[in-house]
Amino acid sequence: MALMPVSDALAAVLAGAEPLPEEMIPLDEAYHRVLARDVAARRTQPPEAMSAMDGYAVRAADAARVDAQLTMIGEVAAGRPFAGAVGAGEAVRIFTGGVVPAGADAVVIQEDTVAEGKRITIKEAAIAGRHIRPAGVDFREGDVLLRKGTRLTERDLALAAGMNHPDLPIRRRPKVAILATGDELVMPGTTPGPGQIVYSNGYALHALARQEGADTIDLGVAADTLEATTAGIRRARESGADILITIGGASVGDHDLVQQALKAEGIAMAFWKIAMRPGKPMMHGRLGAMGVIGLPGNPVSSYVCGFLFMVPLIRALSGRAVIHHRRERAVLGRDVGANDRREDYLRARLERRDDGMLVALPVNHQDSSLLANLAAAQALLVRAPFAPKAEAGAPCEVLRLPA
To answer: Which pLDDT belongs to residue 270?
Structure first.
């Protein structure tokens, strides 16, 4: 099979990935969940004109000159409106958040007055509308303020509460099942035997999926047998997973086992082998509604492919408005050589020049087994197939990695 371009591979992974069903959840459980529908305000905020300062509610015409004297006729506090109206020569003591009484059209702050009993002397001329928050200055009933596809921040939750929504229509979280394969893998904390390595890939992938809002299912490490691999795939189906991620068993020489197990379970493979580095031996297929991504076993390849393909698929199933990673413009921090037919994703550190331009410095060693360099990287420097040699200072594009 010919190497598939990265863009075509991503399009195949996302094909048919529709947002998951909607569910209503309480507001305090909605952080970083994705809205399934637009949400409109159920009330006007503020519902009436309110004072922005502590002072006196007055008629601006009565307090338009310094040393004007007014008579205080009452008091307003937040939640305790004044029942009457402000007439000629009158003032009402008002506190921040208090409803501006009828007749008043300005607030004189307390620092600009002198109070002697009920006599108030104006020391700074009033201006109509000053220190008053008009009704609806924040939003009005019916205003659509939160849009479908938004991943809710803590600020969005405050807004939804102010709009008087105790719960919100949210997309169900995608379920991502992760199955590693390989007799050579042992768990962290274990002393590896001859030829064994410590399992690391799954920890990054679980965290990456959860960061994107998915629930994850750990299917553990399957032995290098058809029976064990097939059993893991069946557990993914039984768990109701929306995405199955397999790790390992995709490289030349051992891919038959994983592919055989996937095909035995009825998974139609869309592709195997992508024109990218790292991560050429990646597989993709579907089994009903469950998308399957077979990642390489090398830890850097596994993570880069998970970032480039698993993350957009999770976002699509979550109903996110923005699915694809955003490329940022930068300049090279050092020379890079000419590229071959594969699209390169070089691990890179980022710096900022004095003029604000982002600088991408590829790490010295790009081997797909080097976890320390992956952990130190802040971005992937994207190099197109057959890109010519480029010198430091040349323009480039980067994909910023999660912080």
So the answer is: 84
